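User: structure tokens for this one?
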Amino acid sequence: MKKILKIIAMLLVIAAVVFAAGCTEDAEPAEDETPEDSEQVTPETPETSNVTGENVTENNTAENNTTEVNENVETGQVVTEADNGTSISLKNGEDFTLQLRENPSTGYSWQLNLSEGLTILNDYYTQDEAPEDMAGVPGTHSWIIEAASEGSQQVSGIYKQPWENTTGTEDNFTLTVEVD
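Assistant:
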């Protein structure tokens, strides 16, 4: 039994020495990191005036110099909460963009139901510009929906926390899509 305890103690000492040696070694900078002794140069702001139909977000800080282009582009008619309870007309195969305000940081989101003649091609969320050090900023959830079958189609949505029971006091959205 004493031999087993000595072996375990020896393994623990070896592990501690290996761990300590790894912690004191100077790490090589990763490929995307700038070595500490190099001069930091701030890149010029990219020209974005010729960008059309794209959301451009610039994040120019010392740690992260990036420009992101969100290529989620609205197509066809744009339907918003102002169109709640109305109807639109489309030809079979055409699509439209549904945009509804939401704040998922609170747990609330839109749960959509579409009739069988409508298909969601894409959906994405775009957060509003956030003041510095502010969390919980709302934004717009967008769905690109295609009219896939002729006839009277329905879009209905309820704005709620998915884990909560429906009480009848939630915000609702309905849209009739007449497809020729």
